[in-house]
Amino acid sequence: VKKIAVLTSGGDSQGMNAAVRAVVRSGLYHGLEVFAVQRGYAGLINDDIREMDLRSVGDIIQRGGTILQTARCKEFLTPEGQQLGAENLRKRGIDGLVVIGGDGSYQGANKLNKLGIKTMGLPGTIDNDIPFTDFTIGFDTAVSIVVDAINKIRDTMSSHERSSVVEVMGRHCGDIALYSGLASGAETILVPEVPYDLDEIANRMSENFKMGKRHSIIIVAEGVGKGEDIAAEITKRNGIEPRVTVLGHIQRGGTPTHNDRILASNLGDFAVRKLLEGVSGKACGIIKGELTVTDIDLVVNSKKQFNMELYELAKRLSQ
Ligand code: F6P
C-alpha cells in the first residue's frame, strides 16, 4: 500500500481521536500518503475525503468525540453504496483503509475488503461489545465516568438512607454495568447476559437496610430495560422508592483516560504496520495485553463472551 485512509463510524467514543492521530502519524512515519474521510461511510459515498499531514491531528489526543465526525449511514448498507465508496477511494489511488468503530462499522469494513480495498478495523465503542478484543477504545473512559457519577450519587444516598437505580449504556452488552458496578461497590448489577430475580433483589434490599446498610445501588444496563421500570418493580415488592438516574450520553463524552489513549495509539499504529505487511480484512484487538488480528468476517459473526468470573466476584463482594 502507498495511500491509506482513515474513518470513524457508528457511535463515537473517547479515544477515537487518539486512534486517528496514531493512524495518520504512523502512516506518515512509514512514508505513506494518508487521507481522512469525514462523517464515516456517509463521507465515503459523498466523496468527503481530504489529505492529512502531521499538523492535521495536532492537539486532539486529549479530546473526546471525533474530529472526523461520524454517522450511521443507511445507504452504505446497499451494494451500490459500497461500490461507490470503494470507487471514491480507488480514484485517488487509496488502497488501504482503517475503520474505527463498532459492530456495524466492521460490517461495512468487511464489505469494502471484499471489494478489494485492504481494510483494517479498530474497535471504537464505549460498549466493549466487540469479540476478539478484551477492551474497546472508549470503554475505560465510559466506565470511569459511571464510577465517578456513582460516587456522587452514593454521597447523597447515604445521607438520606436511600436506594438508587442507575441506568447505564452498553446496548446489548452488560460490560459497562459490570465493570462500573464492581468498581463502585454496587449492591446489584443487572445485565442482559445474566437472568435476575426481582423478588430476591427487593428482599435483599430490605434486609440490608434492616442490617444497617445506609444505601443501596442497583446498576441497570440499558440492554435489560429502563431504570424507571426496574425501580417501579422494586417499589411494588418492598415499598422502597429508589431514586433513578439515567446517565445517558455523558458516558460518551469528555477527555479519554490514559488507558484509552494508549490503547488507541497502540492499535492505530499496529493497524498501519499490518497494512504495510500486506495484511487486510482483519480486526485489531488486544487480548491479555497482546495486540492481535482476527478475520473481520469471524468477528462480525461472533458474540462477545461475558465475564462471569468478574460478575460473580462483584456479587460476592457486595454483601
Ligand atoms: O454504541 C454506543 C451507544 O452509546 C450505546 O451504548 C447506545 O445504546 C447507543 O450508542 C445510543 O445511540 P445514539 O447516540 O444514536 O442514541
Structure report:
The chain is α/β, with parallel strands linked by helices. Helices cover 42% and strands 18% of the residues. It contains eleven helices and eleven strands. The chain has helices at 16-29, 40-45, 79-90, 103-114, 139-160, 175-184, 198-210, 227-238, 258-276, 296-300, 308-317; strands at 3-8, 33-37, 49-51, 96-101, 118-123, 163-168, 188-190, 216-221, 243-246, 282-287, 290-295. The strands form two sheets. Strands 3-2-1-4-5-10-11 form a seven-stranded mixed sheet, sandwiched between helices. The chain has a four-stranded parallel sheet with strand order 7-8-6-9, sandwiched between helices. The radius of gyration is 21 Å and the shape is elongated. The protein starts with a strand and ends with a helix. The relative contact order is 0.17. The mean pLDDT is 97.
Rg (C-alpha, Å) = 21 Å
Strand order of the largest sheet: 3-2-1-4-5-10-11
- Secondary-structure-based class equals alpha/beta
Report the span from N to C terminus. 56 Å
Helical residue percent band: 40-55%
The parts where pLDDT drops under 50 for at least 5 residues are: none
> How many H/I helices?
11
Overall, the morphology is: elongated
Strand content: 15-25%
Average pLDDT figure: 97
- Sheet having the most strands: 7 strands, mixed
